[in-house]
Write a structure and sequence with these properties.
26% helix, alpha/beta, 27 strands, glycosidase, six-stranded mixed sheet, globular, EC 3.2.1.52, Hex-like_dom2, beta-N-acetylhexosaminidase activity, Chitobiase, domain 2, 3 domains, TIM Barrel, Immunoglobulin-like, single chain, 16 helices
Length: 633
């Protein structure tokens, strides 16, 4: 390639790092009227650059050289700058994307730039070690409560399914589809099958009983979920080489009733089939919630018929779009959204697999894509408040003091409530930066009118409105732990803790029900080992497979502590700032997803790291058959 950029860490001291950036022109042509565009997921200290002008919005940076500066052929441009940050440990901490922009008025164009791996000053030196163990005969993940191995084998050739309860309709259809993918044969549902679904109303939600004999398989459950989980276990029992199932008797039930995964589709849009593929995998490991992060600063991904601008404008970013590039695709348009018809398709797909989809519409922060799409509704022109969000935006928070905000919230929530059948809607509420609303006459007047003394109460004011609106729509509000900031929402709101377990405990003690999602132990965008070449981030921690497996929720809390009744369950999450393709998504999720599934499902006395590795070894060939690009443990 004719152009290359090098980034070197020059020094690291007291959370202030100095960098040297060299842009090489390796061609035989001088560059005139040029700019260097790049993305980096850190905030560059203003005026710290040694030459040129550096502008940053979010992760997107423009380096504009001094007037009429030519980048000569076979020459380079060098600049230094500072970032107030913890030391860089991974190659993926460097530049995400880069391009040279030729700002010639007659023919503006982008030139591709290759990115050299960042030269780190202090890369991690530690490495994790995983013991080698033989594959288990019954490689079941998550581990069931009770497994009894019986004599004999059940042959999958020419078998059909029999349903004796409507509760099994979805599970049986799913099992039939999965069996066809394994055996390359159809396995119809009829009145006289060898795999029989039988209702047992005495079993709790999610629980099941599975008996495999030589001539018949009996599946018993008292809920749709229970039948789905039994099918997931049955699929894992299949020897994919012989198409036989060992005779077994299994009794099983979940430890937590809420077992979820969140996927961020706002930072990078993930196509419909990629989302469905993940949901199918979640079903195979007994998850029952898919939390769909659909809106954020960088993209609005759900069709709202009342506001087509949200997807016409807010779903796209790029050099010629209203929303500038972020993270990747510096030189071209990126984005997409899900139509309401497509969302209904995904909901039906998930429902068949026993999975509830919870949508997230993030307010009042993380709203830049909506604000850019609907400025006539959402911009307070008299607001001169000075703030910067954690993702480096200065214009991403809704105003609680203008009528358009409430028109927007009410209209969006009405369509979302109508679209998603789940009884819950997640409204985000996280990372509202300090400084918002402080220099807005309208906001200050609202504070005086309501008797508020702290701007954070305005956040509570807005969220209380959202909660009441959702109650009118028959929905329960969910939110990140900041949802209780401002002390205005009721204890009916369910809190998702992401900063730490301590935050979860504090919310539970206040009387909130809580879902645990601490970044240190459940975030799948965290790097999986300390090797500098390992992709991912580490602001919360490095999260190796063993760390993911050994996460024990609120381990310091006694088993009989009444606070535990406030813990609904656990959720893992994949934030996608630097994940924009199937291969990378697979690598970050698998096999840690399997490890986390066991912490959510299996009672702690039945969990053992070495035993899990043995069962994992037996599962990896199935992941390979399914085309999953998992990280080799």
């Amino acid at each position: 390639m004719d152009y290359r950029v090098d980034l070197v860490v020059l020094s690291e001291k007291d959370n202030l790092s100095r960098f040297g950036l060299t842009l090489h022109n390796l061609s035989d042509v001088d560059l005139h009227h040029w700019q260097f565009h790049f993305t980096i997921d850190r905030f560059i200290a203003p005026h710290s650059n040694t030459q040129g002008t550096l502008e940053q919005i979010g992760s997107f940076c423009k380096l504009i050289p001094n007037a009429n500066q030519i980048l000569k052929a076979n020459n380079h441009y060098y600049v230094e700058f500072s970032i107030g940050t913890a030391p860089f440990r991974f190659i993926s901490d460097g530049l995400d994307d880069a391009a040279i922009f030729i700002a010639d008025s007659e023919k503006p164009q982008f030139l591709e730039v290759s990115i050299s791996p960042i030269v780190l000053a202090s890369p991690h030196t530690a490495r994790t070690q995983i013991p080698r163990v033989a594959p288990a005969e019954l490689s079941l993940i998550p581990k069931p409560e009770s497994v009894q191995r019986l004599d004999g084998l059940f042959d999958l050739n020419d078998i059909s399914l029999e349903i004796q309860t409507h509760l099994a309709d979805g599970a049986a259809t799913w099992l039939s589809e999965e069996l066809q993918s394994i055996t390359s044969k159809k396995h119809p549902i009829n009145a006289d099958g060898q795999i029989i679904f039988i209702a047992n109303p005495t079993l709790d939600k999610g629980a099941y009983q599975l008996t495999v004999a030589e001539k018949v398989i009996k599946i018993k459950a008292g809920s749709n979920e229970g039948f789905t989980h039994a099918c997931a276990t049955l699929l894992q029992l299949i020897n994919e080489h012989t198409l036989q199932i060992p005779c077994t008797k299994i009794k099983d039930q979940p430890r937590f009733h809420y077992r979820g995964m969140m996927l961020d589709c706002a930072r990078h849009f993930h196509p419909l089939e990629r989302v469905k593929r993940l949901i199918n995998q979640l079903a195979q490991y007994k998850f029952n919630v898919f939390h769909w992060h659909l809106t954020d600063d960088e993209g609005w991904r759900v069709e709202i018929k009342a506001f087509p601008e949200l997807t016409d404008i807010g779903a796209w970013r790029g050099p010629e779009e209203i929303i500038e590039p972020q993270y990747t695709h510096v030189a071209k348009k990126h984005g997409g959204f899900y139509s309401q018809k497509e969302i209904k398709e995904v909901i039906a797909y998930a429902e068949m697999r026993g999975i509830t989809i919870i949508p997230e519409i993030d307010i009042p922060g993380h709203c830049r894509s909506a604000i850019k799409a609907l400025p006539h509704l959402l911009v307070d022109k008299d607001d001169y408040s000075n703030y910067r969000s954690i993702q480096h935006y200065t214009d991403n928070v809704l105003s609680p003091a203008i009528e358009g905000t409430y028109t927007f919230i009410d209209t969006v929530l009405e369509e979302i409530a109508d679209l998603f059948p789940a009884p819950f809607i997640h409204i985000g509420a996280d990372e509202v930066p300090k400084g918002v609303w402080t220099d807005s006459p309208k906001c200050q007047a609202l504070m005086q009118e309501q008797g508020y003394t702290d701007p954070v109460e305005l956040q509570g004011h807005l969220l209380r409105h959202a909660e009441n609106k959702l109650k009118q729509l028959g929905k329960q509000m969910l939110g990140w732990e900041e949802a209780q900031h401002g002390n205005k929402v009721s204890k009916d709101t369910v809190i998702y803790s992401w900063l730490s377990e301590e935050a979860a405990l504090n919310c539970a003690k206040q009387g909130f029900d809580v879902v645990l999602q601490p970044g240190q132990t459940t975030y799948l965008d965290m790097a999986q080992d300390y090797s500098p070449e390992e992709p991912g981030v580490d602001w919360a921690s490095v999260l190796p497979l063993e760390g993911a497996y050994n996460y024990e929720p609120l381990a310091e809390l006694a088993d009989n502590d009444p606070i535990r009744k406030r813990i609904l369950g656990i959720q893992c999450a994949l934030w996608c700032e630097i994940i924009n393709n199937q291969e990378r998504m697979d690598y970050m999720i698998f096999p840690r997803l399997l490890a986390m599934s066991e912490g959510m499902w299996t009672q702690k006395q039945h969990r053992n790291w070495t035993d899990f590795l043995s069962r994992l070894n037996g599962r990896l060939p199935t992941l390979t058959r399914q085309g999953i690009n998992f990280r080799q443990p």
